[in-house]
Amino acid sequence: MMTSNLFTLRWGILATGGIANTFTKDLLIDPTTRDAGDIRHEVAAAASSTSAARAQDFLNEVGAPGSAKAYGSYRELVEAKGVDIIYIATPHSHHYQHARLALEAGKHVLLEKPIAVNAQQCRILRDLAKERGRFLMEAVWTRFFPLSREVVEFVRSGQLGHVKRVFADFSFWNDVEKEFGNQHRMVNLDLAGGALLDLGIYSLTWLFMALYHVQPKETQVAPHVSSAVTKYKPTGADETTTVLLLFPGTGAQGIATTSIQVATTPNPDLPAPDAIRIQGTFGDLTVNYAPRPRSYTLTPAASQARGTLASFKHETKSFEIPGGGHGMFWEADECARCVRDGRLESDVIPLEETEALMKVMDEVRRQADLAYPESIENLEYPLEGFGL
Ligand SMILES: NC(=O)C1=CN([C@@H]2O[C@H](COP(=O)(O)OP(=O)(O)OC[C@H]3O[C@@H](n4cnc5c(N)ncnc54)[C@H](OP(=O)(O)O)[C@@H]3O)[C@@H](O)[C@H]2O)C=CC1
Ligand SMILES: O=C1OC[C@@H](O)[C@H](O)[C@H]1O
Q1: Are residues 314 and 341 in the same domain?
Q2: Best residue among 198, 201, 206, 258 to mutate for probing ligand 2, ranked by most atoms within 8 Å of CB
Q3: ipTM attached to this prediction
Q4: Where does the chain show beta strands of DSSP type E?
Q5: Total tally of structural domains belonging to the chain
Q6: Which ligand is nearest to the CA of 87?
Q7: Where is the GFO/IDH/MocA-like oxidoreductase domain (predicted)?
């Protein structure tokens, strides 16, 4: 149901690849189908670095309104009147350059994951957004699922007792050589490809949600990092990566795994074990799937000596994604509310936490001697060759 205080956020879509398509279709779903009657999204424009015709095809394909403008360069998009926020959906390697382009043009930014390729770039984007008074958020959509919000509150409330350990996996099997070759963004170092930045970020997100985000400031301390990385021989990108984190504020441990050679769900027609396991002194909470979670299960701990200390029962709770969408609209709704309320960042995914997680990925890469080309680790802006 619409309210009289309806706020409209006008979006500019920067790049026309796979996820831009999925995200923009979600923007076009009526927010009232998910009880978000206070905000509205308008797809105002899209840009392709290829051509304006490609941008127009994209707008037609997603079903954008006829009023939406098509641009053949990213610069025209960020300078367009009638656009409030830019959704950036280019490869990892280009995030820093494109986010700077949008912020310097005075636009708010929702930036696909990972926010940048290293923590220094992230820090510069944070500072720039603050200096310009613009909203900035990394598009880790998982955090905005009602299921994820509920899990975080469950952990924060202490109902699991003291959380001591978390396991999280997001791995996606592909016939890598056949499907990706050497140029695909998943394995191409020139695009900052590899399992860690693309998939492992979700495993790390669950560790951070359960072991860092819920902590009060005094125990929210950066984790110690140990890791193992196996590289994809043809390109040197990471293909199977395991990260062990020790959170010194609490002593809790987290294990995040990721791979592009084996899968969390090897066969979608067969059941697979839950991908996330949060273990507290009163029991376990497991979540079925990292990026797009659909159910969680509570298992109270029991021992002969103490019976159960848990206040919860063994139960599985399932969640639908309403409106026929993919589930990316919840993060978009957060952007609209933050911009409406003059908030420059979301407290569901604070920029400080985005940077702390990015530092973990930096350290994993340092331990594995895995660097991307200097041109994309660079802090300079603008650089040639980024469609600017
Ligand atoms: N949240 C999620 O669930 C998902 C997030 N992602 C993230 O979204 C981002 C994009 O991924 P995805 O959409 O799958 O990628 P695609 O390769 O499908 O699309 C990337 C788009 O970026 C633009 N682009 C600009 N420069 C380059 C370049 N040098 N090489 C390739 N593309 C370029 C192109 O658009 P144009 O020609 O129009 O300029 C291209 O279509 C990544 O950061 C990824 O991690 C990806 C999948 C799922
Ligand atoms: O963000 C993502 O989630 C789903 C994956 O298939 C995709 O490669 C990745 O970028």
Answers
A1: no
A2: 198
A3: 0.99
A4: 7-14, 39-47, 69-71, 85-88, 108-111, 136-138, 163-171, 224-231, 238-247, 252-259, 276-280, 283-287, 295-300, 315-318
A5: 2
A6: 1
A7: 149-285
